[in-house]
Design brief:
Layout lengths: L1 E4 L2 H15 L3 E6 L6 H10 L15 E6 L2 E7 L8 H4 L2 H5 L4 E5 L13 E8 L2 E8 L2 H11 L8 E2 L2 H10 L1
Length: 172
């Protein structure tokens, strides 16, 4: 799924929709260069569960936990991770296990240690806005994408995904 996000409000709205579609659990990789909007998207996900406070990227603490209305969210930022094994020392296995929702910025820094995500969200600068490419990496991720595709709030943001175009041509 490819989306155009014209401004910060649309990024937050996508995060809120994503939060609802995830239903409070799963593993999501947030990828993109510095300033692409990974933390802004995480703020939207947290808003879906009622969190209205400031959301800062946990660059130095590596993880920021949130307990919200029966939902546990762990927001990771691995940008400054020196070695993937450091995740073991901070209790990463326990944080990633179970029924929590884990949002991981800079997942490449944990390569070889992190499990495969349910969903990967890649953000890129596009003019004055952003583009978001969402890819399912598990059956659960496919369910999440299906829920997102059905949300009317995202219809104005949707761009033709090259994979969708190829499927349409094959059907002719």
């Amino acid at each position: 799924m490819l989306l155009r996000l014209d401004d910060e409000a649309r990024q937050v709205a996508l995060g809120e929709c994503l939060g609802r579609a995830l239903e409070g659990r799963g593993l999501v990789y947030l990828e993109g260069q510095l300033g692409a909007g990974k933390t802004t998207l995480a703020r939207g996900v947290l808003r879906a569960y009622g969190y209205l406070g400031a959301v800062k990227s946990p660059t130095y603490t590596l993880v920021e936990p949130y307990a919200l209305d029966g939902v546990r969210v762990h927001h990771f930022d691995l940008y400054r991770l020196g070695d993937p094994e450091e995740l073991e020392f901070i209790g990463g296995r326990d944080l990633l296990a179970g029924d929590a929702l884990c949002l991981i910025e800079w997942p490449g820094q944990g390569e070889g240690w992190l499990p495969e995500p349910d969903l990967s969200v890649s953000l890129a600068l596009a003019g004055t806005g952003r583009e978001a490419r969402l890819e399912a990496r598990s059956p659960r991720g496919e369910q999440v994408l299906a829920r997102l595709a059905a949300m009317p709030e995202l219809a104005a943001c949707r761009l033709m995904d090259p994979d969708d175009a190829r499927e349409g041509e094959a059907a002719r």
